[in-house]
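pasting for ref. prot 1 ->
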Amino acid sequence: MKRGHGKAGSPRLSLSSISSRLNSFDQNLALWEELEVSQIGLATWETVPWSLSDATVELLKRGYDISSLLVRGFDLAEPESWPITRAMIDAAVDSAAEIAMRGSEPPIVSMLTGRNYSLPSIQLLELLNRAVSPSLLVARDQGVTIALEPTVSMRSDVSSIHTVLDAAKVARALGTKVNVDLYACWTELDIRASISQLCTEGLVALIQISDHARVTTASGDRAVPGDGCIPLAELVAAAVSGGYVGTYELESMGPTIDAEGYSSALRRGLDECCRILVEAGAAAS
């Protein structure tokens, strides 16, 4: 059973589980049913008490597609911790491959790069390459894409890459792709041209949508699309002009979303995303 999102549904629109970050997986199952979404982006640590494999199988049984599996990055200064992180990434890759074996499109495995220690860029790339290369080989063997996700610079605790162009540079070096989080990159110079060019190159595996609250000093306090100040329609149009044909994933999260309530905030966000995709000519699969 496939679901659309309301009357203006788009098969290219997904909802990230991070958007309802305080919910349990079972609570999210009920929420997603209520919202009538068709695709889910799943943070791999948000399936408890389900295993990741069992959670993804359950979603498939309920008729959902899975757009992405989000995994945490490496602590690049602590090589002894890499095998643990690598095992978590490989588990996500295995789940994505299992989804493909069941006849569905494999989700993107979206990865944060890990904590920034103000290392020189060459050293940083060398460490990241050593850390992630075994998982990249596993992913390629199974036909799964691992995409690097940049974050805002305030989140140097989880990421070493803070612009979409830097993410693209690293992705090229590693032979992989990029997850473009519009919230993280919208203030970059010539961002529309950058998004269009990266889409033309085929480097963009996923685009995440949220909005920036007009008055906030917190990096995790995102707004419902349409309530903030990011020119989302223009950025989506740039992706369309570059030939992007992938999924757009709503990733609104933070205290403002929590306070409004997930049912209300995410329904409004999905409606606005649908409107933007339809106007940009990006709604159809």
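and prot 2 ->
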Amino acid sequence: MKNIFLSLLVLLFFLPLKAQEGKTDSTKIARSTVYVELLGSCGFYSLNSDLLLTHRLKKNKISISAGVSYNLPTVDYGHKYYFTSAIHYLRGERHHLDIWLGPTFRMESKESYNAENDKLMCFAVVGVAYRLQKPQGGFFLSIGLLKYFPYTEDDVPVWGGLGFGYTFKQQTA
């Protein structure tokens, strides 16, 4: 049941959102991005989607993102599923300072089908990054540092991340 609920929750983040249609704006900005993140908030890799919400502001922007990751079972652990979401404050026009925070959920599922062996954990993640995202779309790059809370002795104090992908060009009606 947990798997179905978490899967539906993640799918909601990836559904396209439609803003109110009004007057056409001559300064259209690309808003939707899909990217792969290495060593980010989901561990070693994740597939993410980002949507720019306040695209009409010139230098201050807000975006939301969601991502998923899956790790194959090892000797010590079973399957690991990661789900993350975040809200981003972006400062800049093409080269951005990206300050973000959000939850990351990790579900560990042992090899047996007994639900009692499943373990669900939630971490708050805070990050700061350099983000290259052109207003007209195209190549996307993010390089940054992040910190997990709560911090345990087994965690790395500060974790780095590298994201690259594509920002889709704005379609005109």
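Residues 16-26 have pLDDT under 50 and may be disordered.
The domain at 30-167 is CATH 2.40.160.20 (Porin).
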